[in-house]
Amino acid sequence: MSGGVYIPKSREKNLHTYKYSGADDSLVSKYILGPYWNWLVSLFPTTIAPNTITVSGLALVGLNFLTLLAWDPTLNCGAAKLTPGYDARGPNDILPPTPLLARFGFPESVIAKQEGSGSACMPAWIFLTWSLGLFAYQSLDSIDGKQARRTGMAGPLGELFDHGCDAINTTLECILSTAALNVGRSYWSIAALIACLINFYLTTWEEFHTGTLYLSAFSGPVEGILMICVIYLITGLAPSGSQFWDRGILSVTGLEHFPFIAKNLRDWNLPLNDAFLTFGAFGLGANIVASYSNVARARLSRKQSPLTPLAGLLPIGALLTCMTLWMTARDAQIMADGQSFVALYCAFGLMFAYSVGLLIVAHVTKANFPYVNIALGWAIMGTIDARLPEPILQNSLGGVRLVAFGVLSMSFGLYGHFVYDVITTITKETGKPCFWVPDSVKPVEAKKAEGKKTK
Description:
The chain crosses the membrane at residues 186-202, 214-235, 275-295, 307-329, 341-362, 369-388, 400-420. The chain is mainly alpha-helical. It has one domain (9-449). The protein has helices spanning 9-12, 27-41, 50-71, 108-113, 124-151, 156-180, 187-210, 220-237, 249-253, 259-264, 272-301, 314-327, 329-336, 338-365, 374-387, 397-430, 444-454, and strands at 22-24, 213-215. It is globular.
C-alpha cells in the first residue's frame, strides 16, 4: 500500500508519535471562560466524539452565513452610504465622520453604480443570532480537546479537524464581520480578510517550527472572537443597525463636545468601522513580532538559522497578493459585482484552508514544509487573466461570474478531497474513527475507575 495522497505510507508511522503541545496566556481563558468550558464539557457523554462537537460548532457558523446569503447575498447594504444625501451622523452628532479612505473606501466601479439603497440591510435579530452562534462555536471549539482527552480519542486527526474548522470559520466570520461593520464590498473588506488569514497562518507556521501552539494574552480564538460577538451584539441592538458603525468615534464617545477636541481633532473623527479595522492592523503587527520571536527563539535553541523559516511565509504572501491583484483588477470589476465578489472571497478562503491543511499535515507527520500547492497555481492563473489588457476569460460580466464561481467550485472540490483523504488515511492508521467513539477505546474516567479497583 502507498498510503494516502497527502500522507504517504512512509509518513504514517509518524502519526503515532504526534503529541499536542499548547500554551495559552489568556487571562480570560484562565479565570473566566476556563471554568465555564470545564463545566460545559462535563455535560457531554463520553460516547460523543470530539470531532462531532467541532463540526457542530462550525455548522452554527454556517447557519449564520446562510442568513447573510438569504438577506444580503451581495453585500449591498454597505453601499447604501454611496447614495446621495446619506448622512452617517446620529441624531445628536455634531461633527461629520472623516473616513480614512475616500468615499468610505469603495472603488470607483462600485461608486459609479451606487447600488445600495439600504433595502437589503438585515433586521436586528439576525445580528443577535450571529453573536449567539459565534459564541456557541467558540464554546464547542474550546471543549473538543477536553472531550478528546476524556474519551481517549486525542490524536493528530483532532488537531487537523480543529484547525480545519477554524480556518473555514476565519473566512466566514470575516465576511460576516464586514457586513456587520457596514464596509460591504470596499477595500476594507479585502484588508480585513488579509489580516485575519495572516494571523491564522502565522499561528500555524509558528506551531510547525516550535512544536507548540501559542495563544497570547490577546488571541484570535479567545478575545478576538469575543470582540466579534460584541460587534454583532451592538449591531443588533443599535437603532440604525450596521450603519451605526459609520458614525464618528469622537461623536459616539462624546469627545466632540469638548471645544479643544472639536476644533483641533475634527479631521480625526474616524468612522467606528475605520477605527476598529485600523486597530486590527496594529494588532496584526504585534502578532507578527510575537510569532517570529517565538520561532527565532526555538530555532536558536536548536542552533538553527532563525531566518530560514521566513521562506515559509512566501505561500501565504503569494496567495494574498493574488487575491488583492485579482479583486482590484480592471477597475475592481470583481468588487463591482456582488455575486462575483462573495464567490471569489469564499474561494480564497477555501484555498487558504487547503494551504493551512497541508501545513498541519506536514507538522503532525514531520514532513517538509509545503511551499507549493495546486490552489496557488490557479490563483496565479486567474490573477494573470484578470490583469491582461484583454482578458481571455474575464472579459465580460458573464465571464467574470463564470470564473469566480468556477474557482469557488474547484476550491471546494480540492479542499473536500483533501479532508476526505486525510481523514481516511489517519483513521485507518490509528484505528480511531472520526465521528464516534468505538467500544474498544475506554474513556479516561473508566480507566481511572479501573485503576482504583485494582488498588
